[in-house]
Amino acid sequence: MYNFLLSLLIKDMQAFYKQLGLVNTHNLFAKASQGGYAIPAFNFNNLEQLQAIISAAVKTSSPVILQVSAGARKYANQTLLRYLAEGAVAYAKELGKNIPIVLHLDHGDSLELVRSCVESGFSSVMIDGSHLDYEANVALTKSVVEYAKLYDVSVEGELGILAGVEDEVSSKTHTYTEPDQVEDFVKRTEVNSLAIAIGTSHGAFKFKPGTNPEIRMDILTEIAKRIPHFPIVLHGSSSIPHQYVDQINEYGGKLENAIGIPEDQLRLAAKSAVCKINIDSDGRLAMTAAIRKVLATSPAEFDPRKYLGPARDALEELYIHKIINVLGSNNQA
Ligand code: G3H
Ligand code: 13P
Ligand code: ZN
Fold first, then answer.
1. Phi-psi region of 92 (alpha: psi -120 to 50; beta: other; left: phi over 0)
2. Ligand 1, pocket residues at CB < 6 Å
3. Pocket test for ligand 1, best of 167, 238, 284 (most atoms within 8 A of CB)
4. Mean pLDDT (the chain, rounded)
């Protein structure tokens, strides 16, 4: 009886994100791996960011991963975010294109959080056990995969530690992913994709001024040799475009020594084993630069649409550029 009820429940749940019109990452990554491009994973916390992401993905005919962090769930309310994502599917159709859209939990830290997301319609989750010791990371990741499989939800794991500080994610130093560990990790956990540490980091200050902003393509190549055709994920992949930093500083901001990952290096990574690239900070900079400019040049303005609108336009332009010139995922929807 219990098993029967459970199977009914699971059947219901399986259909859940699919009922919302969302997809998991399985096919997207298989195609990206074959085609030498990466799927964009853009973080969102509010309506304008979501509008810009969907509009850019529709205009470029690109699949897209809507990425929600634990911090975003706290900020925007988990229920509202889930309805926004459902609305995003309808919005894309209204704009004229039925693009594949994934709703993904970014940096999940527990099975409990993963469950809550899957139950509210997420089609993909990350379980980030990278700060745990190796065996504990394997055990946590495996437990999440076992659960997520029941619902056909895809799971991203992580090996290696990225430096950088965000609301919920922080570490002072890098620990590069050890190529000797990846095969064992992927086999034992059965994850669908693997985030690796090769010198990218979260936030706007990725390299010390005067040092060479370079990611370790040699480690990526080694990892790809150990797990051929397996989807690799790069976090911390904002490029911190100087035009946004300059505009922020011109209109009263103070961002010093902000340095990101050069876009040509990300393009190379996307052409090789990397199937998903995470970008959040560049969007934050684009929005902030646009808002600062409006507020500084039109001090009497107090209608939020007058500064959030330009911020949304700047974001859309950024995402279109990323999709075409960095990810290469245009015309792959
Ligand atoms: O990797 C972290 C993402 O940029 C999300 O940042 O935790 O501040 O929402 P957040
Ligand atoms: P950035 O801070 O470089 O945009 O990285 C975002 C990220 O990795 C989200 O998981
Ligand atoms: Zn990240």
1. alpha
2. 43, 69, 71-72, 106-107, 166-169, 202, 235, 280
3. 167
4. 94
